[in-house]
Amino acid sequence: MSTLETKSLSLLLPERGLYTARRGGFGGREANRQADRAVVGSVRSRAPVLGVDRLPPAFIGAARRRHRCRVLSLKESFGRHPAGGAREQCFKKTHRYKIIEGDNAIVTGTVRISTNVENEKISANLAECIDDEEEINTKDIYKELRLRGYQYAGAFCGLKSASVTGSNGHVAWTSNWMAFMDSMLQMMILGQNSRSHYVPTRIRKLIIYPKYHTQIIQDYPIEDRQFSVRRYKSLDAIISGGIEICGTVATPIPRRQKVVNTILEEYVAHGDLGIMSLQDAIRMSTHIALECCNMINIKIIEFVDDSDKVISEDLNSLLISEILNDLPQIRHHTKLVTIHEKFPNISLPDNVSTTEITKLSKDENCLIVLGFDILTKNSKKLYKQLLSLLMPKGFLLTLEESDAVYDYLCLKTYELDIILEKQINDKKLNIARNQRIVHVNNYEFSWVDELKSIMNVQNETGVDTEIILVSEEDFKCGLLGFINCLRKEPGGELIRSVFIQDYKAPTFSLQEPLYTKQLQLNLPINVIHSGNIWGSYRHFPLPSLELKLVQSAYVTQMVQEDLSTICWAQSRMSRINHENLIDVIYTSVNFKDIMVAIGRLNAEIMATYERSNDCFIGLEFVGFNTHKQRIMGLCSHGGMTNILVADKYLNWIIPDKWTMEDAATVPCVYSTCYYYALYMRGKMKKGDKILIHSGTGGIGQAAIHLALHEGCEVFTTVGTVEKRQFIRETFPSIPEDNIGNSRDTSFEQMIMQRTKGRGVDIVLNSLAKEKLQASVRCLANGGRFLEIRKFDMFSNNSLDISIFSKDISFYGIILDNLFYSKAKQKSKLWKTITEGLKDGAIKPLCRRVFERNEIEAAFRYMAAGKHIGKIIIRVHKKEEPLDAPLLAHPRYYCLEHKCYVILSGLGGFSLELADWLTLRGAKNLVLTSRTGIRTGYQQSRVKLWRSYGVDVQIFTVDDNLKHEDCESLLKFAEERAPVDAIFNLAVVLKDCIFQNQSPQTFENSFKSKAWMTKKMDELSRKICLQLQHFVVFSSVSCGRKNTGQTNYGMANSVIERICEKRMEIGLLHGLAIQWGAVGDVGLVANMQEENKELVIGGTLQQRISSCLETLEVFLLQDRFVVSSMVVAEKAKIGGSMNIYETVAHMMGLKNINAVPSNMPLVEMGMDSMMAVEIKQILEREFDISLTAQDIRSLNFAKLRQMTITTKQGMIHDTNKIDPSNLEGFDMLIRKMKDADFVPDILVEFVE
């Protein structure tokens, strides 16, 4: 007996054609819209309260403030009644109003009637003239807003046009005041040079002048009523018609990310012989079974005999469930068949159940039956039991001991074939008499009509013809993509293919044993690789990116507000040509870093926005400069790194007596206290009384050192007994009675008692709310209040203005402003700190040191508020060389001195790709286009990139791009700068079933996709000698099947083989990406209805931001074909929907009763694409399998009978099994050693 070991995988691909719309929530922007509605609604409903019975001629809303964002579901709304979710409160005397939910105010403000609106309005003489060209239309405006996270719909899509800068535009008037004012606010969002998600949180003044507004609109026809809208930056106002919105403050908030199941895979060639893990072997077995049967609703049985020594960890049900969950549309149910309570504590998902073999029916109709040691049991009864559970052409997967001995006669008895090892029994299978062979190629498409003719004859005569598609002598043939799509269409299930990639293989012939033995297995796709090894192409999970050693890295946060995602990431910083380069040894964690990390503070509103900056963590550093001097310093952002370029005014030489740890505690806290707060603003002098809150913190300790050095009387607060003891030990000159509690307002009584009611001269504050108010009251006449708590300032928390009657001064201390100030201001800081170092005023602080691999722990420690002094990070250890690499998450960066070419560069995805490349450092872009810039949106993006110093060139090409044109393009790009990457995003879609395709439709799809890629491949090898990335965008339709896209799928398959061939050489890069449906931009986004989620072939649209994140992962891995898609949620098998009504709805028939019940659907307008959609939905939703001929003969009488049958629990299925006839079963045999039951064990397959 010979020893067999087999394995396999397979994958059923998504279908296309049926689009199911799902409506999603609006998220943060909808909350903004609802809040605006409440403000306007409160104004209108307030007329009776104010004693006016009609809408006033003009009214003023002032100091409108949103306290928090309220995210609403689609069913919620604001109203006066508590049941409405929120209620209004308005006060007649003060004109104040509140919108309250529970006990919390959501929006507050004032509203009043204007007695002289002309005096309230902005004077026309003050408003600057704004008349920029309005280049962006409605479609482009809301595309851009959608990319920023705003999902507008209906009347809220009111902007008709706008300038690129968002300074002026036009807004439609639909008699909806709320939608009109929201559209005005959208102009402010367009003007933001950031794609962060902003929501208005404060409006200083809102003027609504209805009379003037209605007078203006009368001059316009009803069908085209629109106002010009202008945004005056100098006046901080937006004006349109009779409405002025002044002093609007917009705050960036994190986007609420929807959790989706994004599947990342690689698509690789697989030979039958080789090494593979158990998980991958079962994955391939499952995929092959699906590929052969072309089903959507799958039933699987895993059988465990009483005698099997199997534990729950050995079961494969859960693994198969995971595999099928990753496949679009495939719905499955698995039965674990075993004795009662064999696995008592096992946890199973909803689609896996347990039962006993005696409870199974003969109509299980399973695709796969799994078992253990089935062949060695030699039980005919067991064979019959298990095989009777299978559907025709079902699969039996058994796991056997590698040294087991069994009789192969059992295979003959039940006519079983071993699929993967291709070891065939001596039995002779008869090949069908009626066979036709069609040779397929990429360069001329006469074979298209030949194949259509054969399929037409088959449809007309009803005689099944075995069609074999053959490709030979061309490794780059697109046969795989073609056959994948064709098998999803009527008649395609009978077609098989042979793809000969081995140039040494014999010419294809049905008399050649190499081919006849393989064809006897009846597999749809047969690929012969080099060395005459049969195999296929399969999807496997893409390995996660591994950390790698890099020369420069920085600390970043992968997910906002999630401290567990803080990590080291590769930096673009280079050591070359930087005069003030610092090798960082220590860095520190500051309170600002914590506030940014937990989402309480957005760094964009604190400093100048830098478009390419994605990290605001880290303000100070300690290290060595290029002269090996020990340096400490400040930076605006990104200080948590191993190398940086220092600002020459913001770094100091470390005193000889200090260690580098000592120095790491100094720059930020002393720059804040010594220069900016206590001396520059606080005018601190000897004899002053000063209250320093949080005295054990970094700034607190630094301030105490400075105050004591100056000769001031110090009061301080702490939060724990341990911190009080620290103050007593570290600063013994501070009396016990001068130490208060920072957890309440009792420190106010302490101050007044100790100063005999006078108060203090200076308060250095870091407390909030009522403790902040108490701190202000602690000031003496002429006192100075120094506020260092950024959150309260940017949240605009209220302050009792009466305190200013004591002639006090209030200063906001924001060190970040210093980083962007003039050199003179920075120089003053440098001199002040230098003097403090010399005279001993500046002293190092206590600290706790974390290692560089303890970043998350350091942040959590500080966030807990239990630390004393500074928290510092040791970036380099003493024994490490300064240029030692760090382990970090790899990132993709562009090179400033290189060029990046994007074919079809002005499309939706292309523009986002170009924008992403500029964010990653690209300074030279060449974008090709057939027509050049046509839309305002394209113009706006190009203008934006050029404003950042990017050289953007638009290279115009035509559809028939010749060899010399491609050569000219690449030479043109090389003249700008050496080409580093080429991206081909070109696409031409002509979707229809194959019977309606023609050689011309295939040629059209090939021109810009396959043939263009082939020319670029050949020419770039000669012209672009420094090319690092060659990337082409493919589609899941190629690797996972899609109805109506045989031409598109074939063209994509060609470019995948080109990339595979490039990578095979070893020195060239090649990457083809099988994208699923892409959201926000591109073809699918244009088809999408407002704010509704399309489900296409079992997949959802992948947001463009997610696509770009995924692209980076792909670029950092050496794979030639990869795949990305988002799998939609799947319904359970066995739904109770009405078949009759579902089909009528698909055909657009509103009155079913008026339809003749016996009229074929074809005569009612069912075309070929609709027929495929009906077939698919019957399989997916009702578990009904019909042939193409059945679909063509359907009428509503038959559909009504199917509905009745389904309700009675009788599944209509054309694939009923006759247990007495066990012919035609394929068998997957997996033989393993005992050790193979351990996860991730690799198994070699031998003959």
Automatic annotation (TrEMBL):
Keywords: Phosphopantetheine, Phosphoprotein, Transferase. It comes from the Eukaryota. GO terms for molecular function: fatty acid synthase activity; oxidoreductase activity; phosphopantetheine binding. It holds the Pfam family KR. InterPro entries: ACP-like_sf, ER, FAS_pseudo-KR, GroES-like_sf, KR_dom, NAD(P)-bd_dom_sf, PKS_dehydratase_sf, PKS_KR. SMART domains: PKS_ER (SM00829), PKS_KR (SM00822), PKS_PP (SM00823). Residues 1117-1210 form the Carrier domain. GO terms for biological process: fatty acid biosynthetic process. PANTHER family: FATTY ACID SYNTHASE, FATTY ACID SYNTHASE 3. This is LOW QUALITY PROTEIN: fatty acid synthase-like. The gene is LOC112467542.
